[in-house]
Design brief:
about 230 residues, alpha/beta, Arc Repressor Mutant, subunit A, about 40% helix, disordered N terminus
Length: about 230
């Protein structure tokens, strides 16, 4: 099966409540999604200019631009970003508020408080209707090395470099977030050592295979206090 068919779906959760953002990120990540969060529409805007998302989960009541207005603006954006599915979370259950959200272009709404399982089911239903996002096979240039994301192959000056399955998956996870830092605990979630130490060991080994100077990495960078970032040419 191709990487396009199996890759994690990337969700953007936008809510000004720190606690709710954290809980949603943890729950949805455990369900297999890659999750990025933002505290308001302005922060979400900046993220959408840098990254592609499969679905947005937007709170209605936020400081600055609210979720309904942000949805309207998204729908006015040309190209694929303007077609990104949107699920609105609202503390109001009145019919007028639901109609406002749907009229703005939201694909669904969910009144607060809600059961996390219902949120998950609604997200999955929206993504099924939207269908898979087709992604062309990607090869990342890393100096004298190149990484084929779909094949999971690393070459150096055209010669195949042996990778373990764990190293391949780690590179794929970092490549999906190309240029963006990825939390080391997120990288470690499916490893035998959830503390992140196994990831640190794999990064050290990968640097020996990729970097001209492993002690001063150019491509597989450490982001202090967060984790790691893959910075291709």
């Amino acid at each position: 099966m191709s990487l396009a068919a199996t890759r994690e779906r990337h969700l953007l959760v936008v809510d000004d409540d720190d606690r709710i953002r954290g809980l949603l990120k943890e729950y949805l990540a455990r369900a297999g999604f890659r999750v990025t969060t933002a505290a308001d529409a302005a922060a979400a805007d900046r993220l959408m200019q840098m990254l592609d998302f499969d679905l947005l989960v937007l709170d209605v009541m936020m400081p600055g631009e609210d979720g309904v207005a942000f949805t309207k603006r998204i729908r006015a954006t040309p190209g694929a970003p303007g077609r990104t599915p949107v699920l609105i979370l609202t503390a109001k259950g009145e019919g007028a508020d639901r109609i406002d959200g749907l009229s703005a272009g939201a694909d669904d709404y969910l009144p607060k408080p809600f059961e996390p399982q219902e949120l998950l089911l609604r997200i999955e239903a929206i993504l099924r209707r939207a269908g898979p996002r087709e992604i062309a096979p990607v090869t990342l240039s890393l100096g004298r090395c190149a990484f084929d994301m779909e094949r999971g192959e690393l070459t150096s000056d055209g010669e195949l470099v042996r990778l373990t399955e764990a190293e391949i998956e780690l590179l794929r996870q970092l490549a999906r977030a190309e240029g963006e830092p990825v939390d080391r605990l997120d990288l470690a979630r499916d490893t035998a050592d959830a503390s992140g130490r196994a990831v640190d060991v794999q990064v050290t080994r990968l640097r020996r295979k990729i970097e001209p100077d492993p002690k001063n990495p150019r491509y597989l960078q450490t982001v202090r206090g967060v984790g790691y970032r893959l910075a291709p040419d």
